[in-house]
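Curious: why this fold?
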Amino acid sequence: MGGHGTNFSRCSVEAFKTFIEKKRGNCLFVENVHKPASNMKGVTLNGLLPLPVQKGSWGEWGPFSPCSRTCGTGVMISQRECDSPKPVNSADCPGNGYKAKLCNLKPCATDSNNAVQLANNHATEVCRNFVKTGVLSSATFLQKGHVYNIKDTLMGCEVMCQPKKGHHRQRMGLMPDGSPCFKPNSDYKFPAHDKNVKYRCLKGVCQVFDCANQFPPSEFGKSPKCEKSEIIGW
């Protein structure tokens, strides 16, 4: 339907605009699809085939995964799929496809009491594993790392591995789930009385866990533990 002097039908223009803006269509040309554009002038929705539209719904939550750490705060994750039914020519299901709980909160014997140092220690764990497994060359990198940028929501959950002299630093991988972070994602709002929240890395993003150690709290329901006003923690 392109070319100089093309006359677009009202339906085709509106359908294309809807597809671009809302990622779904509302009509297809049937008998007119092979006709010259000049013959399509004035074609409306009459006699056109509507595209099927089906809104998606979430399936059931799956079981929680094992805790990601044996000590020092790990994470258990439950996931669900937007497949009951799957959306057809419609937006994805609203909300999260996963939820998480902090677990094994007792510090490890070697954990630092300083949150920044603890986060850097977790980064070092990642870099050490990369060097030991050959992901990073031991000729180029030390078994040491740090948080890429603690002041950023995303980069605060990314690892920077330390190079040996004469080599460049490498931004490499994500912080382990449950690692401390300091610039939380602002997408999730918490009640004013919920003061004892924790900032933790989850899937590469600094997220806020509520006072019952859950994220996002909307998927868990109201917790009696969160009714008390306590000092914020990391």
Notes: Residues 6-51 form one domain. The longest helix spans residues 115-133.
